[in-house]
Amino acid sequence: MSFPTAPALSGTSLVLCIISVFFIPFAIAGLALINTGLGRSRSATHAMIAALLAVAVTAIVYLICGGAWLGGSGQAAHVITIAGRTWNWLGRGGAFLSGLASRNSMLTVAVWMQILSVGLAATIPLGSGADRWRLGASCASAALMAGWIYPLFAHWVWGGGWLAELGVQYGLGRGVLDAGGSGVIQCVGGLTALSVTWILGPRTGKYSSEGPPTAIPGHNAVFVLFGCWLAWLGWCGLNGAGAILFAGAAPAAIPRVSINVTLAAAAAALGAAWLTRVRFGKPDASLTANAWVAGMVSVSASSPFIMPLASVVIGAIAGVLIVFAAEWLELKAKVDDPGGAVSVHAVAGIWGLLALPAVTLFPRLMVYWGNVVPASYRGQWLAQLIAVATLLGCVLPMTYLLNWLLNRIYPYRVSEEGERQGMDLQELGAGAYPEFLTHAEDFFER
């Protein structure tokens, strides 16, 4: 059988899981600060309130229906029978988390973590839509995330769905493994960010008919770097809770999970700092900061299963990868992504899903817990590839279509005058820095 989505917890595991979940909001706060610092000063308050409201919206929508669609392993579910095989594709729980009080503490903690995780996923696209995404529209998109997009894929991987059952149905390893959410949280958020940038289009003045794109630097590098520190705390909690709830890790594994998160972030940041110094003559602070987060994203899927040396390799590759990904997206694909969410969360998230089977080529870098990870890894590569194909071939088109339809009903983008004025004044009536002139930079025509 596939490993349980929410195993019975010992007293020690339960306490450690609760403590870990308490740290997850630091990850949300860190991303909010990073998104704010990488945007314009005239949209700073707007960026922070958008993150706060995204978490609020996702929590309420998850209560109403998202928790029911996500369900859990061993819970009621909608199934499809194909060629004699039963495929679990959607949870069938009660609306408003009905019955939660009668469930055991393990399931309650899992629901608590999911509420925070979907809030984190909804915060990711805000960086890509910075300086031009209307507040109400971002909240509506967050509702889509919590009400359908996130619960659907999370059920497939964490809720006993068909991706988790690939091991049972076709003998593909243990099915898709994603302990800390490289795919479920990070890649889903990153692909939503890509969809949003396509729908919104680039900021005014970013691309001209001739020449390279115009550089629009973030307004506060200190926010960005401080956000990295907060995100570090949050990711340790996120991966620690995921290791217990979704990988069956023992309490003794939690320190190693945090070590792996730390080493991956460190290796990614050093890799990006070195690469940008070699290419540009000086280290790039924003790319180094984004690499720090990308390292944690990339190790999230495998952090309970690997030795520290493996996390260094995974993080270093992620740090180098996002530098080239960010450059290609901006220069070649014409994707204006101020927060770097697509490269940091989507690209690094995909690498994270593939990193686990890559590490299995070196058994000494792996750690096993009973029957959670099998001695034989035949098929694990294919299971992880199927997860990536599902994200790119199903989740991305679905996310784009739903947001495109919502944009037709409730336009996402602020007017050009509103963008020139700044999102703070346009939508909130007051700027973040009223004592300073925040419109000093030139505003380029289309």
Give the SSE layout.
Layout: H1 11-38, H2 44-70, E1 77-82, E2 85-91, H3 105-128, H4 135-158, H5 166-170, H6 182-200, H7 221-247, H8 254-280, H9 285-299, H10 308-331, H11 341-359, H12 380-409, H13 416-421, H14 423-428
Antiparallel strand pairs: 1-2
3D architecture notes:
By secondary structure, the protein is mostly helical. It has a single domain, classed as Ammonium transporter AmtB like domains (Ammonium transporter fold). Helix content is 63%, strand content 3%. It has 14 helices and 2 strands; from the N terminus they run H-H-E-E-H-H-H-H-H-H-H-H-H-H-H-H. The protein has a two-stranded antiparallel sheet with strand order 1-2. Strand 1 (77-82) and strand 2 form a beta hairpin. It is globular, with a radius of gyration of 21 Å. Residues 1-7, 369-375 and 442-446 have low confidence and may be disordered.
Short description, anyone?
By secondary structure, the chain is an all-alpha fold. It contains 14 helices and 2 strands.
